[in-house]
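An example makes the point: we let one protein speak, the chain in one-letter code, the fold tokenised, and here it is:
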Amino acid sequence: MIDDIDVNASYLVKNKTRMDYFIPNYLEKLLSKNSKICSVGCGTGYDVELLVKKGYDAYGFDPGNRVVDWINRSEKVQKRLKVGYAEDMPFGENQFDFMYALEVIEHVGCKNGNWQLLENYTETREKFLNSCLAMLRPNGKLLISSSNKLFPIDVGHGHHYNKLTNLMASKGIALTVPWHSKNFLLSYYDFYRLLQESKYRDQIKIKQISSYKYPSFSNSRRGIVYKKIINGILLVFNVYPINRLNPILVVLIENTI
């Protein structure tokens, strides 16, 4: 199990706030009540619980220490959660109509699931994608999100691979260097190249979709102001070809068979 996140009260509150906003404002617009759904890297399982309460047939799995919070899920939801990696295919092949992995893939192929790239990170990410695609049913869809490697600021992670990123991080600015060999994020083109190496490459379609209303915000006065500003910025960055620089990269991969 990956000991990657401090599952404290603050984290649990942030996770709840995020999913309470993200699921009705973004995710549900992509879902069908007739679909069998899986959260890849579901963490505390709170997202699965929300979906089940809303009437969705949802499941999830995670290999990290956030599973300690599963005890707070209902008995019905606990039966829908499994500990494991994507390559373990915890629920088997050809199981789901829709799968989503939120800010997961940039940590795949990294030491302890954090940010330090391992030598075989490319092969590990290819295996991750192949495993996810193997769990999809015909015409199933896989949603994957990540901070964008091509955008110079990463609001979701710290970057510590040279003097400049270390200096900016000490000032609270998560500067990234897109061309740096130790940059663990992905761009749309990275996704495309990984999928070209997939054994499913001849039966899948990939497209970048809008990140509008993807990030969550608090209900405070400051949070409401931030929401207006950031969603306004995202509207601009969702226009092609500028969208390739979108700070939040969201891709949808469809199994066409």
Remarks:
- The mean pLDDT is 93.
- The chain has one domain: 9-147+180-255.
- The domain at 9-147+180-255 is CATH 3.40.50.150 (Rossmann fold).
- The radius of gyration is 18 Å.
